[in-house]
TrEMBL record:
InterPro entries: DUF2624. This is DUF2624 domain-containing protein. Pfam families: DUF2624.
Amino acid sequence: MKIFENIINHKINTITAEELMKYANQFNISVTRGQARKIAEYLKGRNVNIFDDRERSKLIREIAKAAGPQTAREVNKLFTELAKS
């Protein structure tokens, strides 16, 4: 199962705005292109583990600062869906 987590985390840490939009649409999560761009820029190069509740919570707080609390809630839904997959 650890390899699955590594693959998901790698994708999160290297995601582009276009990919984020694709996943958001796939999971019916509302994210604008501008928000996706800000989030992707923030995530780029970070080594975040979305399977760790504390790390994910810290990341969501940072996303809320960059893109707003509603977007952060939507991104958290996306991360939760990806973690369950």
